[in-house]
Amino acid sequence: MQQCIIWVQRLEATDNIFGPGMLLCIMLTIYTQQRYKHSSLCRCVKYELLEHTADIFIKAYGKTVEEIFENSAFALFDQIADLSRVSPVGEERVELRGENRELLLVDYLNELLYMHDAFNELYCEFDVSLNDDMLSSSVRGEKIDRGKHVLKTNVKAVTYHMLELNEKEGYATFIVDV
Question: Quick check: 34 and 3 in contact, CB under 8 A?
Fold first, then answer.
């Protein structure tokens, strides 16, 4: 049986670089007694940021392809805002069809970015179901409130560059254009 222990400390930022009142979540330690089946990361880690010169390079994990899509969406919106301050009060539906699952992943993430811009919303919970080339998703979040939400990065799009969806190994990689 896998065990994960994550210590997270929330610090009040007082440095002007971050702005007054911004909360920083810092993961101090990840400890796992048994490694995730196909990955060196603990099952409780949704994603990690990989090195990239200009943009954001994300590797999202999941036990199923649906969970990979969900964690990819979470990782995307975690770059946009501090998701610990976003409440899942409203729900939107997304229905998409794609040529293959890799392209469907990028289309899904870009559709979420479009909805973010068009509806002025942040999303924090994602439920995805896939059936062949069809994706159906419920996303939950709320309208952006600059008094409540801490916005981090203005994301332009998810690109096809370095895109990989590896269902067998349980991960996807993609680049976010900022």
Answer: yes
**Three-class DSSP category at 130:** strand
Residue 101: enclosing H or E segment and its boundaries?
helix 101-119
What's the 3-state SS for 21-90?
Answer: CCEEEEEEEEEECCCCCCCCCCCCCCEEEECCCCCEEEEEECCCHHHHHHHHHHHHHHHHECHHHCCCCE
Q: How many separate domains does the chain show? A: 1
Contact by Cβ (8 Å): 174, 162:
yes
In a domain, 18, yes or no: no
Domain residues for 120?
44-177
Number of C-beta neighbours around residue 28 at 10 A: 8
Q: For residue 9, what pLDDT is reported?
A: 32
Q: pTM of the full predicted structure?
A: 0.77
